[in-house]
């Protein structure tokens, strides 16, 4: 006979307790019968339940929450199509090294292999795109396995984990003293590995003696919150810095060590190239854009990334902040860190930078109609404040913005990452505004990208989360159109890539937000200001020239 005097707890409430122990204060979800006991537990634990209109949005929002807060995000979806809908969001977090947990429902264990509602082999599907994927086999193990999944999120470079919880496991109750509920701060070790001391000393020595060093600060600089250490190194040792991904904004625009448009020149002419927290993937030409004559150093959280696709002279595995701080300390006491002799090199790069700026200046100020995309992104850059979080969601239009838009603070740039996923914009806005309600969020969408998850604009209205949204509208999937035009000729450039002329300003108004249409470049800035002042989620629909392509689009190797 069971002891009725024992305190019992359900699987859903154990999930909530484990989330609370990890510091999670919000879950993103689309409801389903398999998962509702988790909601009940979240109510008791004070965790906000944010319901969206598509599971892809829930997963992207959990990814975005992790990027903004530094804490892992969490999405909860039902079994079958609920979980498969979330696959894209998990895959994007996997390539972007973003720590999040997706919890999926599953049919009851008692109905295993019987053909229960929405039964699919979720773990098999999720294993290749997560750092950890498992089924929870017993109610008493629920909280323990949630904490296990979070621990795996931080094994090496961060990434997503997946747990499926069968319905009867989630709904069942067990005695509290039979369930392992890990205590906050008691089940994960520090991930701040300092790197091999001998290698750190060697890098310091290389920096002291280099005449033309350059450093690329990648997304792991923000992931590890290494902003201060990175700034100290480049200023103390007088090293020009380039930033990509989430590291944009590490140095503010106008900083003497902040460079953006001369990276190719720097990589071709430097004698020491330090790559921090970014892989030699397609964005780096698989390492082939780095001078073969240069000494190349790679710093990364993941041992497997170091030296992948290109030989290196020195590899250091560990936390970017810890390593950069140690290098600065070691180098700064020797020969003034080698910094004095680098003025000519910085001046050389600044000249290359100015040449690139001068080349595109006429387009940045263009009064042409349809509006030149460079003019649009230039206006957006001028519009940003010190605390504006910028989100880019699109193909060609966001490629334009990558050359012009400069966030003014660390952690104020968000893009999909190397998976190149369209549709992250609205979910990233949702996460950013919830995590930083007092910060302004400015999002630039391609019209094709917005269409993928745009219905959750209503979620932003429902939760009263104002932001300034801009749709660069050319009624085309223009990044692909360029490739088709280049490869197959003008007569076949419009196959499968042309969209209707959608008035996204009216779409915003229909859903309770602020909307405005812009066709004249002189009207962009006033429209942005009115969107800011409206206090509503907004979409400024800007009609841009469909026959102008970003240099980055035209240089993509897949089209050549």
Strand and helix layout:
Layout: E1 8-10, H1 11-22, E2 26-29, H2 36-45, E3 48-51, H3 55-69, E4 73-77, H4 81-85, H5 87-96, E5 100-106, H6 122-126, E6 132-135, H7 142-153, E7 161-166, H8 167-171, E8 173-175, H9 197-209, E9 213-217, H10 220-223, H11 227-236, E10 241-243, H12 263-269, E11 272-276, E12 295-300, E13 314-317, H13 320-332, H14 343-364, H15 373-383, E14 388-393, H16 396-404, E15 413-414, H17 425-435, E16 440-446, H18 447-453, H19 457-462, E17 468-473, H20 478-488, H21 504-510, E18 514-518, H22 524-534, E19 538-543, H23 551-554
Parallel strand pairs: 2-3, 2-4, 4-5, 5-7, 6-7, 9-10, 9-11, 11-12, 12-13, 14-15, 14-16, 16-17, 17-19, 18-19
Antiparallel strand pairs: 1-8
Report on this model:
- With 560 residues, the chain is an alpha/beta fold.
- It is 39% helix and 16% strand.
- It has 23 helices and 19 strands.
- The strands form four sheets. It has a six-stranded parallel beta sheet, with helices on both faces. It has a six-stranded parallel beta sheet with strand order 15-14-16-17-19-18, with helices on both faces. It has a five-stranded parallel beta sheet with strand order 10-9-11-12-13, sandwiched between helices.
- Helix 16 (396-404) links the parallel strand 14 (388-393) and strand 15.
- The protein starts with 7 loop residues before the first strand and ends in a 6-residue tail after the last helix.
